[in-house]
């Protein structure tokens, strides 16, 4: 047996007080009055032994009362069997899991409130000299320090549910950083959580200097269906065209969930989309046609009906339909009339043509697509500008000149990591393959007819293939040679055609079934593909056009809970915006330079990690982590505080000492009042 406060044992000297009192009491003489000698016999018959026994028992009772009171204040305990009980002040860290899953109900209260009680009970089990950190899933800067016992209890009372979710390995790293900064030698770490399986990654925990205690909390069984993600089938959305949106909905429970209603909110209207039946622990995909009836920005939200876990029932996304698509046709003196005619009858496309000798390179970022129309040679300045243009999201289409300077062309191709041009082949060849899986042709034809008329060329340059080029074939000859290939660079693309556009060499320009939709889709794919949704807490870097050269002007992000200034870094014509975890609620956010002038829109959603309802119970944690950690349970407040104290010191005995002191006090009272000598 050991004592927490052994210096209290000096108070055992107080035992001398009842001893001294009793010694003086024994020396007192008692006068007995009697009127008749006949009573003298009765007095003599009262033995002195009985009186001495009573006084001795009273003395012993009083000594034991004082002794056990002293023991209670000295707080005796039996050290734990594993010998881990340590003496001295401690630096303690307590992780209070306040993520969305902690809003679930336990048997009597929400898990958040049960976690609050557990955290307070842990703090109560420590002394006023110990230093305690309270850390939550928010990872706030103020929580990276050690507090007094009183301040720790106050901090626990302030904690509320948050959208943040953290892997427990990262939580533990922060906790160890805090306790290691403390002055005390003894370090202890607690994690109070529901221990969701997708965030509990403590299998590799190894630390003999820091004691880790896990406090698992369990909720009642719940069902949960969540909208996992959504994306458009096409990288760009077209006006008055079908725009299929793929929606992924997941059932996180172990039973089938029928009749899950799904709806789309767009343009201030609600569009019911039907119901889904989702098998247990399975994701289903649904295709939704999003109506696009006007140009400009769209704010849209998908919703499913699901209770009681609702934070993942909405999925916010935004997209923009450009007012027009700008195209630049660069020619060597006379532009190809078929290219001009392709765009002239459609107001959505605005085509301009410029002579290669009169180009203004600074205007390239204003165009969505640049077409090189049979240029005999390519200036080095043009090659350099086209590469920068493509890296920033522009697309380039090359139709070579019949007598092209292949050195210039292949220099350009090298910059794009594309295949090179070889010698011209004057044989007639027919295209036999169309890549219907690629964006250019994936939704052009309602039926993929076998009798589709495909281009024929009378001469073409051989395209020398390289394994490093990453070519994606759009159109191909019968012998497998490429007619039109696609290559990616940065955020843009290069489309490489093997034959000139001139009707003397190819009938491509006269093949309306292929040429017109191909140029249209190349122009549409040239518009920068943007993410339609972001995840709160991922801290993505948002990218937008740099609309100002004035260093005094700053971009602002405005949402339904106010506005803030993001981190801003200009990179040429682009502006990089860092959110730095300033987005805290799901919804729509506008990018502004001036009030009322919306430049971009962003949709933010909560992290779906919390959607999974798979948890580790105490037995699972013990099986996974073994004796590397301690798993602590408790049925009520008193039991739990006692469990923590026993974990720290061993089996506490002070309560038993106090009970024994009261029992001996009662015995002393009974001896004095009831035993008549």
Write down the overall mean pLDDT: 86
The shape, in one word, is elongated
Low-confidence stretches: none
Strand order of the largest sheet: 15-14-16-17-24-23-22-19-20
CATH architecture of the largest domain: 3-Layer(aba) Sandwich
- The proportion of residues forming helix, as a percent range, comes to 10-25%
Strand content: 25-35%
Class derived from helix and strand content = alpha/beta
User: Looking at CATH, which topology of the largest domain would you report?
Assistant: Rossmann fold
Total strands: 34
Number of domains: 5
- By DSSP (H or I, 4+ residues per run), the number of helices equals 13
Describe the overall structure.
The protein folds into five domains: about 1-80 and about 660-675, no CATH class; about 90-220 and about 615-650, von Willebrand factor, type A domain (Rossmann fold), CATH 3.40.50; about 225-320, Immunoglobulins (Immunoglobulin-like, Sandwich), CATH 2.60.40.10; about 325-525, Rossmann fold; about 535-605, Immunoglobulin-like, CATH 2.60.40. A hairpin with a 2-residue loop joins strand 27 and strand 28. Helix content is about 25%, strand content about 30%. The model has no long low-confidence stretch (mean pLDDT about 85). The radius of gyration is 41 Å and the shape is elongated. A nine-stranded mixed β-sheet has the order 15-14-16-17-24-23-22-19-20, with helices on both faces. It has a five-stranded parallel β-sheet with strand order 4-3-5-6-33, with helices on both faces. It has a five-stranded mixed β-sheet with strand order 25-32-31-27-28, with no helix packed on it. Helix 1 runs antiparallel to helix 3, helix 4 packs across helix 12 (about 635-650) and helix 8 packs parallel to helix 9. With about 675 residues, the protein is an alpha/beta fold.
């Amino acid at each position: 047996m050991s004592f927490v406060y052994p210096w209290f044992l000096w108070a055992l000297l107080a035992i001398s007080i009842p001893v001294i009192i009793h010694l003086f009491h024994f020396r007192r003489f008692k006068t007995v009055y009697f009127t008749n000698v006949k009573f003298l016999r009765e007095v003599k018959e009262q033995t002195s032994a009985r009186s001495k026994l009573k006084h001795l028992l009273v003395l012993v009772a009083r000594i034991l009362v004082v002794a056990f009171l002293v023991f209670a204040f000295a707080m005796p305990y039996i050290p734990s069997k594993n010998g881990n009980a340590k003496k001295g002040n401690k630096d303690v860290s307590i992780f209070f899991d306040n993520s969305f899953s902690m809003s679930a109900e336990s048997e009597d209260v929400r898990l958040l409130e049960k976690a609050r009680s557990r955290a307070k009970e842990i703090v109560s089990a420590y002394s006023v000299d110990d230093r305690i950190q309270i850390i939550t899933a928010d990872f706030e800067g103020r929580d990276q320090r050690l507090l007094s016992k009183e301040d720790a209890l106050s901090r626990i009372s302030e904690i509320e549910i948050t959208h943040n979710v953290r892997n427990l390995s990262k939580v533990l790293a922060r906790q160890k950083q805090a306790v290691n900064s403390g002055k005390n030698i003894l370090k202890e770490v607690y994690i109070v959580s529901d221990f969701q399986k997708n965030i509990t990654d403590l299998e590799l925990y190894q630390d003999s200097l820091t004691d880790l205690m896990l406090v698992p909390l369990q909720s009642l069984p719940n069902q949960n269906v969540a909208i996992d993600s959504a994306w458009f089938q096409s990288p760009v959305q077209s006006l008055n065209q079908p725009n299929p949106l793929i929606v992924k909905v997941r059932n996180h429970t172990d039973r089938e969930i029928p009749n899950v209603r799904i709806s789309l909110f767009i343009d201030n209207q609600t569009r019911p989309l039907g119901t889904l039946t989702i098998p247990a622990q399975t994701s289903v995909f649904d295709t939704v046609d999003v109506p696009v009836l006007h140009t400009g920005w769209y704010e849209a939200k998908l919703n499913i009906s699901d209770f009681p876990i609702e934070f993942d029932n909405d999925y916010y996304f935004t997209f923009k339909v450009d007012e027009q698509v700008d195209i630049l046709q660069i020619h060597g003196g006379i532009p190809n009339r078929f290219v001009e005619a392709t765009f002239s009858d459609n107001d959505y496309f605005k085509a301009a043509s410029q002579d290669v000798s009169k180009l203004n390179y600074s205007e390239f970022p204003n165009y969505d697509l640049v077409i090189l129309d049979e240029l005999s040679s390519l200036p080095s300045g043009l090659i350099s500008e086209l590469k920068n243009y493509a890296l920033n999201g522009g697309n380039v289409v090359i139709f070579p000149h019949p007598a092209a300077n292949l050195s210039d062309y292949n220099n350009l191709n090298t910059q794009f990591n594309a295949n090179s041009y070889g010698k011209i082949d004057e044989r007639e060849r027919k295209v036999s393959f169309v890549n219907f899986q690629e964006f250019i042709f994936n939704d052009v034809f309602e039926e993929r007819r076998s009798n589709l008329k495909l281009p024929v060329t009378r001469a073409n340059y051989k395209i020398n293939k390289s394994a490093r080029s990453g070519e994606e074939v759009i159109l191909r000859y019968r012998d497998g040679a490429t007619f039109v290939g696609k290559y990616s660079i940065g955020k843009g693309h290069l489309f490489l055609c093997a034959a000139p556009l001139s009707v003397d060499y190819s009938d491509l320009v006269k093949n309306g079934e292929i040429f017109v939709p191909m140029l249209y889709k190349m122009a549409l794919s040239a518009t920068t593909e943007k993410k339609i949704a972001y995840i709160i807490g991922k801290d993505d870097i948002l990218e937008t056009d740099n609309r100002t050269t004035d260093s005094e002007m700053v971009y602002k992000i405005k949402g339904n809970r106010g506005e803030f200034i993001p981190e801003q870094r200009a990179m040429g014509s682009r502006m990089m915006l860092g959110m730095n975890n300033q987005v805290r609620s799901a919804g729509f956010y506008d990018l502004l330079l001036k009030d009322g002038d919306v430049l971009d829109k962003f949709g933010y959603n909560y992290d779906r990690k919390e959607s999974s309802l798979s948890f580790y119970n105490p037995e699972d944690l013990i099986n996974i982590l073994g004796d590397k950690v301690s798993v602590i349970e408790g049925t009520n407040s008193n039991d739990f505080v006692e469990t923590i104290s026993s974990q720290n010191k061993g089996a506490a005995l002070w309560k038993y000492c106090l009970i024994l002191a009261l029992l001996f006090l009662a015995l002393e009272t009974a001896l004095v009042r009831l035993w008549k000598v």
